[in-house]
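Margin note from the TA: students keep mixing up input and output lines. Inputs are the sequences; the output is the structure of the whole complex. Example:
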Amino acid sequence: MNAPTHKGASTTWERQRFLAQMALRFLLQGGGSEAWQSWPIWRRLLLRAQWRAWGLPTVLSFFGLVVGVASLSVAMAVVSGYEATLRAAVVDLFGHLVIAKRDDAPISRERFEHKLRANFPEAWRQEVRLTPFLTLEGIIVGDGQLSGVILQGVEPQSVREVLRIEARKVKGRFLKSEDGETAESDAVPVMVGQALAKRYNLELDKEFRVVLPRPLESDTSGFASKVLRLKVVGWLDLGKAEFDERNIMLPIDHALRWSGVQLPIREQMQLGGWRVHLGRDARAEEAQARAGDLAATLGRNWSVMDWAEGNRNIFKAIQYERVAIFFVILVMVIAAAFNVASNIFVGVLRRTSDIATLRALGLSQLDIERMFRWQGLLFGAMGAALGLFVGALMGLAFLEIQKRFALLPADVYKLNFIGVHFSWLEALLVWTSAVLICWLASLWPARRAARLDPVEGLRYD
Amino acid sequence: MSTGQNEILLQARGVTKSYPMGASRLEVLRGVDLQVTPGEALSIVGASGAGKSTLLHILGTLDRPTLGKVFHRGQDLTRLDDDALAAHRNRSMGFVFQFHHLLGEFTALENVAMPLRIAGLGPQEALAQAEKVLRQLGLEQRLTHRPSELSGGEQQRVSMARAIVRQPEILFADEPTGNLDTKNAGMIQELLFSLRETHRLTLIVVTHDLQFAARFPRQVRMRDGVIES
């Protein structure tokens, strides 16, 4: 007898392949016998013949799984998008690190930059970028209302390399170097957060006033005020509502002058500090560790903060939310898996005769069990893959709806726009979870299939 | 043909099969003894409920006896586990049933290739061997047809091709012509005998058809779960 033996070195793989193919065919072709079963699968799907082959219960359980996985993936993507948007808003305005000076002793800019770069790994040094800043607080008055504002003094040339502010310009122009040389009698060109601009009706080229309170040297309990004349040259979308409502960006030279510093910023600096970009966004995670090292090196006169410092609670909450949302929505997938289990079970009952035939041809009980486990696995794999695709479409729809309608009240969510961030790792996690759940759901019907008596199945057609 | 111990291919020794029925048990087979030698062709006849099909299923390892033993070339099959029995069926036995029991989703070619795939052959090799057998049975025009596109006679021929594609030692047939018209039944009968010759098969057939049964060199008559003659 020259036929192949039943058990050989390569049969395990071939057997699994055969069982998987059988499971797929049983799954896709539903057991009907119409002529269209010979059509290619894409044609059947397009012409709905496949849905007829599967029958309504299978289609419903499949879509249940798709909806569950889609919801899970889009929820994860929105949470990640929220985190990414928030992080971008913070990093774009503050940089990865903020190094603030605590005293007003002059320091050589060149020496300081050199000292700072020396604290980073060699590979980073050329990529690390710095820009000086000086922050003042003032009060804007207009249209019968007043509110506190932050005047961010920036150096127009170097700030573009450190903060991603230019990309956030929605109207007008960005600050130029010449803006720092504006005569004292002229209004100082500034860029304003768009929420502030809308609130105070600050259209381009419009002049407005900000009151800068300054403590009196003679009486520290009192203060004098200086009125600044500013002119809007651009609007910024700073992402986060509280940034957008308070920030005004102006050349650092003016900020220094108003704060009482006389020395030109290009040579020395006395107040404010530095914003640092670590060269690559991927290094943001390391900023916290770097901040600690830098603080130790620079000494007591400097404070070093990483980008997450002021928002650490929010970012921590997002991490917890992500896990909670994952498990809450995973319940939907688990519910869908019950449908998958009942669907496979019905398939097993309908295929009693086929199972008996396969037993007669040489499949063992374990093989039959494996075949229906494969079915659960493949059902889950296809449903989860389609679910991820549908989830991606839902994510895009969410972005589009946000653009067209004011979906998120900025005062509630802190952000007026939430990005959708699909990560391969999260997609893999969602897909694997769904497939695993479907596989688990198939265990019981698969066991039932294996225990069917082949004699019963062969008795009738 | 010698009936010495070494010449026995298949042997049932004191095979009893009973099913629980309320407080009592229904005895379908009662201590059946049967010996089959290599290359033998025998028919099993008897009235409905005599236990013919049950005996065939037990000899074909699709069912286990309640009591008694079944030996294949001296090996006690009742001691084998399910995996080993499945392997044994795939390697040594072919089955033809009253209803063709072809899988509706698969073409004739794929159905015939199935025992080879189960044995571990790759798809290409299995399909090539299956095609060869289908051609031998005159079904070369029906390779890619699904069971629903075949006539009753063709369906049964495909199921016979599937039964012999692994070149088994024993072919079991349970009422192979029971679902066919006279013309097709005659054709299937001829094919069975012809396959027995060409493939040197041991043929064990259960049938109601006494004329068909009479064509076998050996007939086993059953009544109430025992072999009458």
